[in-house]
Amino acid sequence: RSSDLTHCTARANMAGHSTLLAALSLLSACQQGYFAKMVGESRKKHKIMPPAVTGPPEFERTFRAQQNCNEFYPVFLVALWTAGWFCTQELASLLGLFYMFARHRYFFGYSESAKGRLSGFYMSLMALFALFVLASTGITNSFLDEYLDINLLKKIRRLF
After folding, report:
1. Stretch (H or E) spanning 91
2. Is the pLDDT reported for residue 6 higher than 60?
3. This prediction's pTM
4. Which among 7, 56, 87, 88 is least buried, having the fewest CB atoms inside 10 angstroms?
5. Which pLDDT belongs to residue 13?
6. Rounded to an integer, what distance in angstroms lies between the CA atom of residue 32 and that of residue 38?
7. 3-state DSSP assignment of residue 93
């Protein structure tokens, strides 16, 4: 029994280092579920039964917006967690919130008109790019530190 408690405590300590990432992942999964619900409501409104994916332009835009969000979702999660684990979970989580906001704008903008998607789309690309830069910086620093004993982030911090 005490070894089970020790194991749970160790897992809780490890999880504490990624609480923000986990919370944001769960929140973003809820957002994805909400987008799927909106497609379901649009199906009912326009009497479009699955597996059909064509119908009035309003339905097709809503469906396509949700599909696009699904297509980008794995990319977002990988970038979020990599940036959070190898660099900083706080900054990665802030960028993740910005990405979710951008996806919200994208989804509802696209549901209204094809042009309405553009600002949210470009904002989400900026957030993904920033997450990739953060993740790449963290991985590069970890590689250099582990294999060449060079910690660039420490050296940069000393300058400021």
Report:
1. helix 89-112
2. no
3. 0.87
4. 7
5. 53
6. 10
7. helix
